[in-house]
Amino acid sequence: QVKVGVINSLSGNFAAFGSRYNTGMLVALEEINADGGINGQKLELITQDDRSEAQSALAALESLNKQDVPLVIGSYASGITGPLSKVATRQKLPLIVLGSADDSITKPGSDWVFRAKHNSTIVANAYFNYFDNLRQKHPELKKIAVMYGNGAWPTSVSEEGVRQAEKRGYEVVGKQAYDQGTTDFRPILNKFRTSSPDILLTSSYADDGIAIARQIKEVGLNAKVVAIDTASSMISFIQQVGDQSENIVSAVSWSPDVKYEGTPQLYERLKAKAKEEPSFYEAEGYLALTVAADALRRAGSLDREKVRDALAKTNLKTPVTDVTFESFDGFKGQNPIKSVIIQIQDGKHVTVFPENLASQAAKLSN
Amino acid sequence: MNSVDEVVLKVEGVDLGYSTLQVVFDVSLEVRKKELVGLVGGNGSGKSTILRAVSGMIKPWKGRILFKGEEISGLEPHQMAERGLAHVPMGRQLFPNLTVKDNILLGSYLPRLRANRERNLEKVFSLFPDVKKFAQTEAGALSGGQQQMVAIGRALMLEPDLLIMDEPSLGLSPLYVKQVMQAIRQVADLGFPVLLVEQNIKQVLQFSDRTYVLENGRLVLQGPSSELEGHPMIRKAYLGL
Amino acid sequence: MQIVLKADSIKVQYGGLIAVNDVSLSLEKGQVLGLIGPNGAGKSTLFNAITGFAPVRSGNVTFLGQDVTNVPPYVRTRSGMGRTFQTERPYEDLTVLENVLVAAFLKNPKRKDAEEVAMSALEKVGLQDRANQLSSDLNLARLRRLELAKALALEPKVLFLDEIMAGLNPPALKEMIEFLRTLTATGMSIVMVEHIMEAIIQLADHVIVLASGNKIAEGSASDVINDERVIEAYLGTD
Amino acid sequence: MFDYVSFFQNLSNGVLIGAVYALIGVGLTLVFGVMRTINFAHGDFVVLGMYFAVVLNGALGWDPYLTLVLAIPLGFIVGALIQKFVLTRVIDAKPETMMLATLGVSLVIGNLLLLVFGGEPKSVNMPYAASTLKLGEIRISVVLLYAGLATLGVIAALYLLLNKTEVGRAIKATAENRLGAELVGINTKKIQAIVFGLGMALAVTAGVSLIPLLFASPVTTGALFTLKAFVVTVLGGLGNIGAAIIGGLLLGVVEVMGASYLDSAYRDAYGLLVFVVVLLVKPEGLFGKSVKRV
Amino acid sequence: MSKHMLFLAVMVVLAALYPLTLSAYITVGISVLLFTGWATSWNLLGGWAGQLSLGHASFVGLGAYIVAIGASQFGFAPWWSMLIAMAVAGILAVIWGKLTFGLHGPYFSLSTIAIAEIMRLVAINEGWLTGGASGVFIETLPEPFGIDLFDKTTQYYMALVYAAITIAITILISTRRFGYQLKAVRDNEEAAMAAGIDPTVIKLKAFVLSGVLTAVGGGIYGIFLSFIEPHIIFNLLLSIQIALTVIIGGRGTIWGPAVGAVLLVVSGEVFRTAFAQANLLVYGVLILIVILVLPRGIVGEYVHKLVRRKYANRA
Ligand SMILES: Nc1ncnc2c1ncn2[C@@H]1O[C@H](COP(=O)(O)OP(=O)(O)OP(=O)(O)O)[C@@H](O)[C@H]1O
Ligand SMILES: Nc1ncnc2c1ncn2[C@@H]1O[C@H](COP(=O)(O)OP(=O)(O)OP(=O)(O)O)[C@@H](O)[C@H]1O
Ligand SMILES: [Mg+2]
Ligand SMILES: [Mg+2]
């Protein structure tokens, strides 16, 4: 059989994400083996926990390297994936990025590191393509305020967002960072309220989003478009925030109603495995392993160099997204994925942009 | 009342020590009602250790300790206090950030003592007028000697069936030493039995009814204090005569 | 005779309480100054003020001709003061020898020399058998002696002793008095606070009596113990 | 021109957030006062309270505030048991040892929650979560107001307990000198269990009161609350119950004002800076005191 | 040469053979050595001088950042950066110590958390200085004598030398005047003053030594990760882990930190592979058990028993 190494955060701070990625990979694994595995050989995962720590991730990589895996998939946080990508490159061991979306992982990138999911530049662009699209019907959308947690991902999305806003002729009326773990956003939101932005773009981790949504309402900030990146894409967000979650948008790499071939079936399988409503995290896990299996099949060998070459030539359609690895804008080994915008409508996530993938029309908050 | 009832404290052949080090060997002693009993001996002979065992801070290795007829080995200090034992330890063990008054009032913490709290407080104040002067001061700010008085006062608040004291005169000025010893005698005369550890053997022999003499963890002499005063060994070894 | 220590009108105040009020003293080389008085009279406080551990409101301390009033305690130690504390302060996690070693290092930076000094200090107080025991395992009387050994190992010019005789039985007391005599014979001066009058009478060249922070009498031991005020405030009548 | 409306808006927010901080801090300060140890698991206790409300709300539809009826006694019992069976073993060791033991408790609680409930943040959806009271142009969060009232109630109750009851006396005595307390008949082990139980009950109360507004994550949220609690209690003076209020309010106002008028990215730093400055000027905290003698 | 030095020499020789025999676990070996070095450095302040710092991740971060920024922005060789890091760490320790040594017990510990948190916020928010939230990559390093510094075996030997130096310094201090001055200040500041010791100066020396040595380990850590991010490195948890390593091993002992590092890192690694999701739970339980059963730490309890036994035999 063929063994693939996985480094994932199953315990520690990022365990919530780790277990979702794991679910997605398990679904992909079953699918791949049902389809005859890798050219007739059964695919197996050697999964190692990194305790949400960089040292442990490196220890895991070392041990996987010694087990002669043809490639490794991992991990979630950029602080962990960054060191992994460096060492993998040195060991000439192909690495498929599992969760990390930070630009720096594939920019400048390396010959051995591949990312099928989005990065912060792509996501920021997705938001602004969406806003531009809305603006065609609602030219009054002009003023934008940006709030973000000071982690790597929210910061880079927001900084790229501000660049895009200026380039595309929006008026940035506020840009405020907060320390991860803050629970009181009223000072920022109150400040924003005085300049009455039309668009509120907040980028946060899952936890903060719940409190932010409640406090937006509480302080009486009436933006017409409210984006709460990532956090609002979770089902639990709708459950916990309730009515105030209505019309909030987020960019994601995948959503259950996005119009790719096989998406509905994938949704069902993910849901069955997760025993709850799946999110894009599960889908990204699925994506990473699917990409790996495709490359292994085409390489026809477990030789790392050959696997690397096969990965570089990937041209794959999946129920999550289309995948090719390209060099552009300083990126390398990056899939120029089309991120989608999902909106909460009537207590459900629906895809509203880009229009060719959308299932519903976008709505304004006010 | 039979004679067994008369015995308040009975220590029967105890061995005591710390971790692996034995310091007291096969000591037996007793204290009866209305008695003031002295326990004397050289530095490090194990006097404090015996008191600690009586009040439950350490457990005997061997032997029994009976308090009012009840076997008490294994009880905690607070259980001993409930049963009517008051211990004035060396080092006083006051509550430094509480006022002197609160320190003394805590002596009548146990429910059965609360009714007489105010009356007992007045008694203590009349015994130690200085303490009254500092009633509202934090105990930690008092001088060493003043603290000693507070500690004795607190113990008296317990209306104890037995009072055990570890060198109560330590650090007291001569005037107070006399006062404290007289007070202890008074307390004993009131019917509170007292087991008193002191360095000042002259004082002990003068004020107490009976005395035990300890040497290197073993009892070497015991008897009525008046008899011991003239004992040649006492005169030589402890009075330096 | 050479005056080693002089204190002029020392005043120490804690909040509203004047613990030491306008007390002066002086001490000659090789002499013993006794400090007595009722509990809370301010003896330890005066002691602390001179050695730098209590804040001085007004007045001056002169030590070996230098004004040390505003000098931190460790500097006073380096210039020749050695003291004990009324409530003993061992370094609990160190052995008895190591406790003394800390002090011995002051004048002897080399471990070997320091160890010799420390050992001889322990011998002087009769703790040599306990050298390798943890100081937290000592009983009170031995801790007292350890305090003294620590002060001796500093090889001080003036030794400040706060009630080191408390809790000693008569033979031990006698020994201690003898020992302090041998120290003064070598030219060391001593300031001692003591409630044990026997010791004061036998040792002190000069006695100062404090009550409520004020100096109420001074003079030779025999003068003082016959002083009316002292008897009333301190000694009591038989 | 100075914007008074937003100033008072921020001030009132700061005060209310401060009350929440005080509520989180008061249990920590109580435990410190008696045990002389910093409880690193305090924030995790707050989170336990949150999960308790989430679970009861999910299973039985109870309003979080109603769950307090069960949460407080339960918290007390669990706290007392932790003291009795775990911490009491190191009570005689150095304070740091006990501190590290509470850290172990914290690791265990956080990871147990993670195993049982998964890592997703949990919250409850209450209709009043985002509702406000309007005073002129100033909006006041209803949930924060509830939490503020809870703080007042809790601190008043604690004050009475500590100063007007025999248990309170016994707690103070145990805090000062355990052997001394034993000698007057106080069962100090029991008192310590009571105090730790109280500390935990207070933490749980804070968690339950906050869940309509915030969220609970198993590992991360606890650490954040613990840190806030540290700052609050040290600002006021460790072991001083009333001062926890002042410490909390001060921290709340400083943070909100700093975030509003300076840079919100440094919000936590303002609180910490004030904390360091207070310590430098008054090493025992604003209201701390200790008698020291040589 | 003392018997501790001899033992250290033997241990270093054995450790030097490790990459040859257990080549699949070099990363774990590096972690053990780095934690040994950090914990031993922490011990100088926390164990010997009794100042329980919960902010030592600041020094790790400082070392790592200076080496990383030096390499990525200015092309400095790591050894020069390391010297700069040592100087900066020393200055930081002096300022930090001057500010906080008036504080005692828990107040000191909490103040170190506060200062470390402030430094974390600065590292995150001052992107011009630190690369901000997204962190810094070390892309290239010089190759002195053809030695590849990115090579894990090379890093292992760097960490070994580092850990050995920290232990050697501790051994030297332990029998000398400075060591006793530290312990005296820890056990009783007033008594120490009465022995002519200026507690502030002694504590400052300990803080500087401890901070500088920790920063050196931080520099190696930076090379080891070759990518550093403020959230990962300026982390309260790392500070706590360093303190925990010492307390588990034995405060104020020579070998305690190393024993603690071996136990915690190796058990962490074993649990990671054996218990998956529950591994941190098991780890927490292990820590609790060790603390409850051996409150002085593993080596601490042993040394304590040894002193007691020696005396019992003589008495
Ligand atoms: N906590 C302890 N741990 C170990 N040994 C101890 C402890 N306390 C006392 N000892 C030892 O027990 C012996 C007896 O001590 P104890 O205090 O009972 O004597 P004592 O008769 O009260 O002496 P003193 O008159 O000096 O107070 C001494 O050798 C002492 O060193
Ligand atoms: N740090 C302090 N804060 C407040 N008051 C103090 C302090 N130190 C001493 N005092 C007060 O100063 C007075 C003098 O105390 P001091 O300790 O000097 O007495 P003393 O003469 O040494 O008595 P003793 O013989 O009992 O030791 C006492 O009333 C005491 O309460
Ligand atoms: Mg004794
Ligand atoms: Mg005194």
Automatic annotation (TrEMBL), chain B:
The lineage of its organism: Bacteria, Pseudomonadati, Pseudomonadota, Betaproteobacteria, Burkholderiales. The keyword Cell membrane applies. Pfam families: ABC_tran (PF00005). The keyword Membrane applies. GO terms for biological process: L-amino acid transport. Residues 9-241 form the ABC transporter domain. Keywords: Amino-acid transport, ATP-binding, Cell membrane, Membrane, Nucleotide-binding, Transport. It comes from Pollutimonas nitritireducens. This is Branched-chain amino acid ABC transporter ATP-binding protein. GO terms for molecular function: ATP binding; ATP hydrolysis activity; branched-chain amino acid transmembrane transporter activity. Belongs to the ABC transporter superfamily.
UniProtKB/TrEMBL annotation, chain C:
Residues 5-237 form the ABC transporter domain. SMART domains: AAA. Keywords: ATP-binding, Cell membrane, Membrane, Nucleotide-binding, Transport. Pfam families: ABC_tran, BCA_ABC_TP_C. It comes from the Bacteria. Gene3D superfamilies: P-loop containing nucleotide triphosphate hydrolases. GO terms for molecular function: ATP binding; ATP hydrolysis activity. One of its GO terms (cellular component) is plasma membrane. PANTHER family: CONSERVED COMPONENT OF ABC TRANSPORTER FOR NATURAL AMINO ACIDS-RELATED. This is ABC transporter ATP-binding protein.
Automatic annotation (TrEMBL), chain D:
Keywords: Amino-acid transport, Cell membrane, Membrane, Transmembrane, Transmembrane helix, Transport. GO terms for cellular component: plasma membrane. InterPro entries: ABC_transp_permease, BCAA_transport_permease. One of its GO terms (biological process) is amino acid transport. It is found in: Cell membrane. It is a multi-pass membrane protein. One of its GO terms (molecular function) is transmembrane transporter activity. Belongs to the binding-protein-dependent transport system permease family. LivHM subfamily. This is Branched-chain amino acid ABC transporter permease.
TrEMBL record, chain E:
Its main location: membrane. This is Branched-chain amino acid ABC transporter permease. Keywords: Cell membrane, Membrane, Transmembrane, Transmembrane helix. GO terms for cellular component: plasma membrane. It is a multi-pass membrane protein. It is found in: Cell membrane. The chain crosses the membrane at residues 48-67, 79-99, 156-173, 206-225, 280-299. Pfam families: BPD_transp_2. One of its GO terms (molecular function) is branched-chain amino acid transmembrane transporter activity. InterPro entries: ABC_transp_permease, LivM-like. The keyword Transmembrane applies. The keyword Glycoprotein does not apply.
